[in-house]
Amino acid sequence: MHTTRRSLLVALALGVLSTGVLGQTPNLSARVVIVCSDATTAAYTQAADALTDSLVRQGVARADISRALVPDMAALLQSDSSPRASIYVALGGEATQLLVSRNVRVPVLSALIPRRSFERILRSSGKLVSNQLGAIQLDQPLARQLALIRLALPQEKRVGVLWGPESSDKAAALRILASANALELREATVSLADELPSALAQLISGSDVLLALADPSVFNSNTIQNILMSSFHARIPLVAFSPAYVRAGAVMAVYTTPVQAGNQAADVVMGVLRGKPLPDHVLDPDDFDVGVNVHVARVLDLTPDAQALRLALRRLERLERLP
Amino acid sequence: MKSLDIRTRMLLAALLPLALISTLLATVYLLARFDDMQAAYDQRNRAVVRQTALASEYGLFADNLSQLQALAAGVMQETDVRWVAILDARGKLLASAGQPEKVFAAPMSALEMQGFVPDQRLDWLAQPVNPSVIALDDLFETEGVGQNQPPQQLGQVVMVFSRQSVDARKRDMLVSGAVIGVLGLLFGMALAVFLSRGVIRPITRITELVERIGQGDFAAVDKLCDQTTKHDPLQELQSHIHLMAKRLSQARVGLEQQIALATQALREKKDEAEQANVAKSRFLAAASHDLRQPTHALGLFVSRLAQLPHDHQTGELILNLDASVRAMQNLLDGLLDISRLEAGAVQVDKRPFALSGLFDQLQQALNAESVEKGLRLRVRPTRLWVMSDATLIYRVLLNLVGNALRYTERGGVLVVARQRASGQVDLQVWDSGIGIAPEHQQAVYAEFYQVGNAARDRTKGLGLGLNIVQRTVNLLGHPLKMVSQPGRGTRFTLSLPAVVGQPDLIEEFPKDKTVPDDLRDRCALVIEDDALARSALVGLLVSWGMQVAQARGSADAFDCLAQGVVPDVIVSDYRLQDGYNGMQLVHCLQLQLGVPTPACLMSGDTDPGLIQAAQTAGLTLLHKPVRPAKLRSLLRHLLKESSVQRDMRADLA
After folding, report:
1. CA-based nearest residue to B95, from B160, B41, B156, B169
2. Picking from A108-117, B233-242, B578-587, which range would have the lowest pLDDT averaged per residue?
3. What ipTM, to 2 d.p.?
4. Which residues contact B146 (CB under 8 A, 6 or more apart)?
5. Structure pTM?
């Protein structure tokens, strides 16, 4: 009795969704199901669109691709009528969390997710990356960021890095990469928010360029203004990891757009659909853009060209991959 | 004063609302303006503090003390700022500027705070300094662990502002508001005065107009009406007043005419009445004069006749005749008294006198009449003295007692004098007569009024007695009261002022009785134009033993003197036919004789002027009909005086 009523409610909810919100009929027999964390964040929609388009271009019937939001998906999974899917693509942390927590029996690919978020989900669910659970992280590889510094600011050798609680595990890897790139690494650790001003002041005094690494406890909307101001006052360029930082005043950043992420996810999905297992490690984003704040660059007497830098970086990575 | 009142009222009516409204408006707008100024001051202060907080954000983040100090110094340039302090997140003072009267150590707070120190007129504001937030719409941010972390407060800015300038501006505004209000009020007052003049002037004019109308000056209406202008707001009222005044004037003229007519009519009536009165007096005078002559003669004849020897029957007839003549003479005397009283010719000669003499005389005069009527006349002897005119009092008593005897059929009449505690002597005349009904008690004093004598029986008198009594006591100023009950009798009470007895002044009423008959062989000149009267008088005098020369007029009299007659006494009629009157003739005769021969005048006239003139000339005037007794007494008196004078002249010689 109870279940009958719930299924009725779910059917009703789906009916409403199908005619209104998404505009696309969730096909229960679809082979690819895209689950978006959030309908309001444009990045997920763009990524989902890019993923869908890419799949369609590669021969997947549009009808076999269905899309759902986290709450709807949760409802579907709750009912017995779980979709007949070949693979789930979770865009964002919430979608990943949902699919990981429900033991779906098909492979799940998580995309558009910061490395820290994915690792936290794994920790909380006790799972590991496997052929049933793969991910394409949002964080750029450290080598790419260092390469950008080297390309864009060839004179600056001393690279300052603020380590926070969520980023300090990369310190060792960065030190190796820095020395490999003939860069001098200056580090400061911020374990408490209070320490930021002094740590920053100390770091700025000994650095030519600041490299921001994603760590919300250090770089967030409250702190970024004063970090940027400090670096700007000291005429030290800040190289960041997202276009928002470029808009806020960072001189440049290397990042992956949602479309690029969607396209990369489509490639992985196609592999799965073609019978390949999911990669057993977290994938780095393979495509990226370089953003430059021209105004800030001009004030700092820099003239970086974003497009040229992107091309140079891609060229460099391909060169490096070739051998 | 009235116009001033009107003006004041109008000014008040115009100015009170104006003053009220202007004061209210000024108050409301000033209060609103003060609120605005205060709000602007508060907002500006808050804005300055916020701005300072914003500006000090990076300095606080970077711990840049010099920048903060410069900022604080810069903020001090803002108006009203007295003190600026920038504190770090732990409350440590990093930078400050200005010198506060007091250190404002506001506690660290994430909220905006403010306060006011009233005694120093200082405001303090505390503003937390928070890092600026830049929205980072990247996926790292939304996925981050610290996404909902509250911003870390960097520090606090505390500033102190002074309200001095705001207060000064408020004061200025209050002063200017007051000045504007006063100016407005003055302007309003001037305007009200100017406008009210247009109303007050006509009102004043109308007030004056009404006042002058009130004083009876109706001509003022036309004059004022001419002065008015066509634009007078009270033109209509003025014209109505004009109309009213006109009507009033006409009504007054009409009334005056009516009054004049009525007055004229009254005057005519009065003249008629006076003429009638004069005619009555004249008639009375004429009638009494004409009656006197024959009565006079008749009396003299009867008196002469009585002296002749008669048989008993004739003697009785003569007695009756004498009584009738006396009654007639009394009537004429009454008329004469009235005439004299009316004329005011009666001279009052008040002096102390003993009532006893008066009473004796009264008893003698009326005893016969009472005995005749079978009544008892009692005059109770008295030793009281009074202050009055004895002759007039005697006339009064004579009338009262005569009246009493006349109206009493049984019993008697009592005359008494009583001493009162008030110092008055009451002379009372009691009778047991018919009495007077209350409704007649006032009327009995009227002329010719008689109770119970509708048939006008003239033996009962003419009805003049009480009238004479009243006129006489009024002249004397003595109160007279009457108490009467019909059928029981009447009591008259006359109050006289009492005096202490003066035995040396014994009146000489009874003297005549004792003097010896010294008329015999004396010579009398009788001048009388009426033959009958002359004959009667001469006969009478001759019967008294006198030698009589008689004259018809002045010519005869002078002839007598020329024939060598030297009269001892002259008895002359007053009214003579040949130009002289008695007085002039006596005077001429006396001149002719060369000695003041005593003389007396006789007249039927009751003319008051004549009585006065006779008194002035020192001549005794006898009114006709002359009583033989009276004449005899007078002649005796005159001759005695003349002999005394003659003796004195002889002694002197």
Report:
1. B156
2. B233-242
3. 0.70
4. A216, A217, A220
5. 0.50
